[in-house]
Amino acid sequence: MKRGIISTFIAGYLGVLLYGLFCHALYYKVNQHTAMYFIVWDMYCGWCAYETRAHVIGEGESGQYYELAPGPWGSFKPHGDIDRKHYDHSGMHAIYMGLNVLKNTTHEPMTRLFVVEEAWPRKYNLPDDLWARRYTEPKDRMSYYYVRSVYSPDGMLTQQGPTWLSRVSQECVMDNPRLLADMKKGRPFYAVDADTSSRRVVPTAYELPTAQ
After folding, report:
1. Which of 115, 15, 13, 8 has its CA nearest to residue 68?
2. Among the four residues 41, 82, 99, 181, which has the most C-beta atoms within 10 Å?
3. CA atoms 65, 71, 72, 78: torsion sign
4. Residues 31 and 120 placed together within one structural domain of the fold
5. What is the mean pLDDT of each run of 10 residues along the chain (212 residues)?
C-alpha cells in the first residue's frame, strides 16, 4: 500500500513536470490559470539585473538644459518612494509630465525635449553593511545614461530608441562577426511603433544626441 502511494506520487509529479515542459516548449496554455506558474519554466520572469530611472529634460534656446519632471509643485509617488515617471518602461508617456510642467510654468522657449534613461546594476542597491559582507571592492555606483526618445517642443516624437539593455544587446550582436553574418542572411523587415495612440510609424534611432 505504502509503495503504491509512493509510486503514484512520483508518477504524478513527473507527469506534471512533463506537462509543464510540454506547455513551455509549445507555448500551450501557459497563462491558463495561476497554478501554471509552478510548472511552466519561468524562472526570474520580468527580472532585470539593472535598476532604471527616467529623466525628462528640456533644451532651451540658450542651450541650457532643464529638468521637467517632477514639477515645482512636487512629485507623485503612487507605490513606495519612486516617482510615477519611472514606471514608464516604454519611454512614451513620461514626456507628458514634462509638457504639463512647461504648460504651467514660465520659461524660455524650448528647442527639443528628451526622455533619458538612467541605468545601474542593482547590486549597488544593497545597504552598506551587506555590501561589505558580500564584496571586497568599494561601493562605487556608476550610472549609464541613454536617450530613449527625442520630441519637438509641442510633444511630437522625432526619434526613439530601445531600452538601454536592448541597445547593449544589439551592440553585442553587431560586434560579433558570426552573428552579424547570420543576421544578414535573414529577410529585411520594418519595425513599427507599437504605441497605437500616436498612430505614427517611428524609425528606430541608433545615434541620438546626448543630453547634458
Report:
1. 115
2. 99
3. negative
4. no
5. 88 89 81 78 69 92 91 84 85 88 91 93 92 91 91 92 84 82 69 49 38 39
